[in-house]
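Hello,

Our lab assistant flagged a job as stuck in the queue for most of the afternoon. It eventually completed. Since we weren't sure the result was trustworthy after the delay, we are filing this so someone can double-check. Below is the sequence as submitted and the structure that was eventually returned. Let us know if re-running is recommended.
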Amino acid sequence: MKTASQDLTTGSISRKMLFFSLPLMLSNLLQVLFNMSDIAVIGRFAGPMSLGAVGSTTTLVSMFTGFLIGLSAGINALTSLYFGAKNRSALTQTVHTAAIVSLLIGLFLMAGGIVSARPVLQLLHTKEELMDGAVLYLHIYLTGMPALAIYNYGNAVFSATGDTSRPLRYLSIAGAANIVMNLFFVIVCRLDVAGVALASALSQYMSAAMILAALIRSRDIYALQPRLLRIHRRHAKDILRLGLSSGLQNAIFAIANLFIQMGVNSFDAIMVAGNSAAANSDTLVYDMMAAFYTACISFMGQNHGAGKKERVLKSYFISLGYSFGIGAAMGLLLNLFGNQFLSLFTTDPQVAAAGMYRLRIMGFSYCLSAFMDGTIAASRAMGKSLVPTVIVILGSCVFRVLWVYTIFAHFRTIPSLYLLYSVSWTLTALAEIAYFAHIYRREMR
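-- returned structure --
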């Protein structure tokens, strides 16, 4: 039977990586559309207050989803390593262990998030008039966490083995359903923030069901067989070692961004709504760039498993070049067409003007994050996750909190708040590159 998996240890890396990454990029964009359609429908059909309520949850949603994406990066790294080494036993045990671990973590995040939603939003000084809507949105949205965990698990397995087209197909179907349900629940049923949250949760279960069915139907060596589902301690430890550190890094990023959200919340409701609308560009650009970080792990992992030293390093540089180029191009487009982009989420000219403050600065900063995130992905492909996580916590997370309480506290302006991104990315990237150079020389000599 013909298989959709790919051997990434032969052929042109630049060409293969481009065609490998395009479906990943489209998949990531569709995931962004889940949240963007929430914001767009709410902003245009329910008004600025509902937009502010959903927007106030953006950082918390990013924290939970970022954790699951980080966990899937660990699954991707291990799966690609064993697939490249043609270690069938280790690959099978990893795939089945990862399925259970992902589901358990998804359930834990759902329960913990629902319980902590209101206290955390209060800690963030969310506007009182936005609080009830924000809590309601989170309570419903977080019921989709187990499904999101399973989808990201399946996506990681398929991507690690070179198949990025099937996850795209499933997410396309679920994404289209999400937009239709958004419009139906908000315009027809008048469910407001509850409607967009319900649409997102249902679409996540739809994508999870399709990708799980595909893994079970597969005849390849990474197929999911229910009778083999069990936790293998050694592989669970490896998944948690790589995945939890990556997930915690993403979550801590989001926690650091909570302090930035506190800074934004110190301005009026118009600025909060404008920031919420403009912040959609962050996820849009990051997730397009992230396709090449996933490619970096898959290509480096397979070639590391196959012992092909030159292709390991070349994969890193090519993925870095692609991600930098995407970040620079998207940043330029957002600066040129920022008002048109913001019109997707609001019809209020004051909210759009507030959003442009963020777009003008962030548009020229995104490409800098490629050096940090691309190098972190490369280190994880080499099986190293703890030190890169510590570096990024210190360089980007702790540094951001200090910036909020020093630079921003002094100037109290929106530009002084947003500039912390480019400065923290640059400092962290320098340290991550130095560490990767060290481990590459040691591991591949």
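-- support follow-up --
The delay was a queue issue, not a problem with the job. The result is valid. Residues 97 and 236 are 6 Å apart (CA to CA). The chain has a mean pLDDT of 87.
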